[in-house]
Design brief:
Chain A: InterPro entries: AAA+_ATPase, ABC_transporter-like_ATP-bd, ABC_transporter-like_CS, P-loop_NTPase. Chain A: One of its GO terms (molecular function) is ATP binding. Chain A: This is ABC transporter ATP-binding protein. The complex is a heterodimer of chains A (314) and B (454). Chain A has 2 domains: 218 residues, Rossmann fold (3-Layer(aba) Sandwich); 88 residues, Alpha-Beta Plaits, CATH 3.30.70. Chain A is 34% helix and 27% strand. Chain A is built from 10 helices and 14 strands. In chain A, the strands form 3 sheets. Chain A has a 6-stranded mixed β-sheet with strand order 6-7-8-3-9-10, with helices on both faces. In chain A, strands 2-1-4-5 form a 4-stranded antiparallel β-sheet, covered by helices on one side. A 4-stranded antiparallel β-sheet of chain A has the order 12-13-11-14, covered by helices on one side. Chain B folds into 2 domains: 293 residues, no CATH class; 117 residues. The radius of gyration of chain B is 27 Å and the shape is elongated. Chain B is α+β, with helices and mostly antiparallel strands and 454 residues long. Chain B has 16 helices and 9 strands. In chain B, helix 3 packs antiparallel against helix 6 and helix 6 packs antiparallel against helix 8. At the A-B interface, strand 1, strand 2, helix 1, strand 6 and helix 2 of A face helix 1 and helix 5 of B.
């Protein structure tokens, strides 16, 4: 038994009819982190989340959640909370009633958070007595998060929690998740929004066609991927382009979508991370001010596309 | 997933997170009831069931024309106890199947529609308890609605016509207390087929999910059973259908009571209720909530839904046929028709004498007999149809003569009939009788009756 491990699975396989949703997946997630789960549609993310939440059992393999084995006769242990495919809410009940009925279903000692406090935490205190029927998608997502927090979660499994959130709501949800992790909670976060994953996750797992194609820290993912395209906005794009062309390991990209942007002071270069250091120091030494420097496509997104396309082509 | 901590097997002391105990069914039931009562359609149904029948019965009673084609409808001006029986007849045909559809047919499907199954499973972690709570919650709501229908229609009837004696289906008079008890018992008896429809609703709700067919299933089954009851089916099959108790309660209002068809109907309904509930439970346990579009569901519905219920129907019909005599025929024989019509006429003649303040007469003095022919005696003298013609013969009280009257009978396949007077006028009389203080319907002008199928 390892108390530092929140999830440990070995050889997990789940089959639906002729479809192999999960194919001998090994899982290990440390406690107290936000672990991202990404993959194209049909990769097996929802199935894996369902197994973690006790919605189904694996056909093969072993799974331990919070140190407790999970199986047909062994439901997911207490302390696991979350939602898959959107939060389950009852439109005819108010936000407060939704949480109250949910709290009533839990063992009394498992409900630690006050309903009002949970609603306040996700920014829904003012609509506590409104029926959920009138809630926007973002509000429902936040209420789902409040419902998950209402119990005493040690492992929070969230499927697209930022779906439908405006920037303010997104910031609020990110704040809540970071506070939970600071308190020792483990969060499994499935999302298609790479910016969210990069902002929140320390580690990420990429699934494709039921198999794990990568799992580990985000920086490791960045190192392992191909060269990336970067936008470089300077006070003198022509000079910057010339410097870039002369810098080893750097190529100036022309005719890409990014280059076709209307910005005339932007160039797009392609390079590995190591070559970028030299480029930037040369540009600065030439008295060219750098106004913006960022990847055109995030490292995670690039890796995602690269790895999943490889798996699909296989 | 490659292990980022997989190899960091620390030697820390075991701190396995305990699995929480199951959530008590009572708590889940409360949750289900909160959901049920928060739905506008359930609130509307409760309001309608507790107010509608009373208002309707009262309003009908205040009309000069009564629904004489409905069982006990012709007696609504005579007693308050006819109202709840008229309402019961209507409820068995339309209201109860509709209520079971809306409540039981939607109790599981609503979670599909709202996308809340996973939420519920995660919170409760016991399919068994979820099923139990949902089944009990829907049953509770259905019972509340049925009690509302019964109480409201009874109140409406009694407010309109007071607690007076009721004329039974064979013309004998029930005291107000006796009528009250039998009305209550009749409503209690239809709970059995209501439960059967509710269980079929649960089965449909689980098997068909958010498809409208799930919601409509109890209505469609009830409609199918009503159509079947209209056909000249063998008695064994008629009684093996779970909806027969929606009809057979009328046997309570004869003397002696036609209890056997009623008991068989109730038992069959309860068997269907149990079997359909078990099948619904098995289907629910096998459902995969990570894959909401499992393509194996269709085969399971056939294997665990349709086929077992067809087997139950066949088995029940076989048992009824084996344990009762004449269950292979229509149950409507010439001898039974003659006996029923003669009995009803005798009872109603005495009632008419009382209404007209004539000296009382006993049925022994009347010595009523009936001679009935179907299709003028051509063909088999058996079965339903509107071609039955009966000649009633009886001793005229006070005179040493014998009188005869003719009645045309329209007998339905379930044994119920309307006897329509066809002369002579001295026997059938007129539509109304003017008695001192009140104008009442002539009980011998047209009357209802029932042939015991067993």
């Amino acid at each position: 038994m390892d108390t530092t491990v929140a999830i440990r699975g070995r050889g997990i396989t789940k089959v639906f009819g002729d479809v192999v949703a999960l194919d001998h997946v090994d899982v290990s997630v440390a406690r107290g982190q936000i672990h991202g789960l990404v993959g194209p549609n049909g990769a097996g993310k929802t199935t894996l989340l369902g197994l973690l939440l006790g919605l189904a059992v694996a056909d093969e393999g072993t799974l331990e959640v919070l140190g407790a084995p999970v199986g047909r006769a062994l439901p997911a242990p207490d302390g696991v909370s979350g939602f898959v495919d959107g939060p389950g809410l009852y439109p005819t009940l108010t936000a407060k009633q939704n949480l109250a009925t949910l709290a009533a279903l839990r063992p009394r000692d498992a409900v630690t958070s006050d309903i009002g406090e949970a609603l306040h935490e996700v920014g829904l205190a003012e609509v506590a007595d409104d029926k959920v029927r009138g809630f926007s998608l973002g509000m429902r997502q936040r209420l789902g998060l409040a419902a998950a927090m209402l119990t005493k979660p040690k492992l929070l499994v969230l499927d697209e929690p930022a779906n439908g959130l405006d920037p303010s709501g997104k910031k609020q949800v990110h704040g809540v998740l970071n506070r939970l992790v600071a308190a020792g909670v483990t969060v499994i976060l499935s999302s298609h929004r790479m910016d969210d994953l990069e902002a929140l996750c320390s580690e990420v797992t990429i699934l494709s066609t039921g198999r794990v194609v990568f799992s580990g820290p985000l920086n490791k993912l960045s190192d392992e991927t191909r060269e990336l395209d970067y936008r470089l906005r300077t006070t003198d794009p022509a000079a910057a382009a010339a410097i870039a062309a002369e810098t080893p390991g750097i190529s100036v990209v022309a005719g890409t979508d990014a280059a076709a942007l209307a910005d005339t002071d932007v160039i797009v270069v392609r390079a590995q991370v190591a070559a970028l250091d030299q480029l930037l120091s040369r540009v600065v030494r030439a008295d060219i001010a750098v106004r913006e420097f960022a990847p055109v496509v995030s490292p995670l997104e690039a890796a995602f596309l690269d790895l999943t396309e490889q798996e699909t082509d296989r | 997933m490659t292990a980022t901590v997989a190899d960091a097997d620390a030697t820390a002391p075991a701190a396995q997170t305990p699995t929480a105990g199951p959530v008590p069914v009572g708590r889940i039931l409360r949750f289900e009831l909160v959901k049920q009562f928060s739905a506008w359609r359930v609130r509307l149904l409760i309001l309608l069931c507790w107010i509608g029948p009373g208002v309707l019965v009262f309003a009908i009673d205040k009309q000069s024309t009564l629904p004489s084609d409905t069982l006990f409808g012709r007696w609504m001006h005579a007693t308050g106890w006819a109202g709840p029986l008229v309402a019961l007849g209507f409820a068995g045909t339309w209201a109860l199947p509709l209520l079971t559809s809306v409540v039981a047919g939607d109790v599981f499907a609503s979670e599909d529609r709202l996308g809340t199954w996973r939420h519920l499973i995660i919170a409760i972690r016991s399919h068994r308890r979820i099923f139990a709570a949902k089944a009990v919650a829907s049953l509770t709501v259905i019972l509340l609605l049925v009690v509302g229908l019964a109480a409201s229609s009874t109140l409406g009837g009694l407010l309109a016509e007071k607690n007076l004696p009721l004329v039974g289906l064979d013309g004998h008079t029930l005291s107000p207390g006796d009528a009250a008890g039998k009305v209550l018992l009749a409503w209690a008896c239809v709970l059995a087929p209501t439960l059967a429809l509710a269980a079929i609703g649960l089965l449909g709700s689980i098997a068909l999910g958010k498809s409208p067919m799930g919601l409509l299933l109890p209505m469609l089954v009830a409609l199918g059973m009503q159509l079947a009851q209209m056909l000249p089916l063998p008695v064994a099959i008629r009684l093996a259908l779970p909806g027969y108790a929606f009809i057979s309660w009328n046997g309570l209002f004869t003397d002696p009571t036609q209890i056997k068809p009623l008991m068989i109907g109730v038992v069959v309904s309860l068997v269907w209720a149990v079997v359909a509930t078990v099948l619904a439970y098995l289907l629910f346990l096998r459902r995969d909530f990570t894959n909401l579009t499992n393509d194996g569901a269709g085969r399971r519905v056939l294997a665990l839904g349709v086929v077992p219920l067809a087997v139950v129907l066949a088995l029940t019909a076989g048992v009824v046929a084996a344990t009762t005599s004449d269950a292979g025929g229509t149950g409507i024989t010439q001898a039974k028709v003659q006996k029923s019509v003669a009995t009803a006429f005798g009872h109603l003649f005495r009632l008419q004498q009382t209404q007209m303040y004539h000296s009382s007469v006993t049925e022994a003095q009347l010595a009523t007999t009936a001679s009935c022919l179907k299709s003028e005696g051509l063909g088999k003298q058996e079965g339903s149809g509107n071609d039955w013609r009966c000649t009633i013969t009886f001793n005229v009280p006070g005179n040493n003569i014998t009188a005869q009257g003719i009645y045309q009978l329209d007998i339905t396949a379930n044994g119920r009939y309307i006897a329509d007077g066809d002369g002579p006028q001295e026997v059938n009389g007129y539509f109304l009788i003017v008695t001192p203080g009140k104008v009442v319907a002539n009980p011998l002008w047209q009357f209802d009756g029932n042939v015991d199928l067993l």
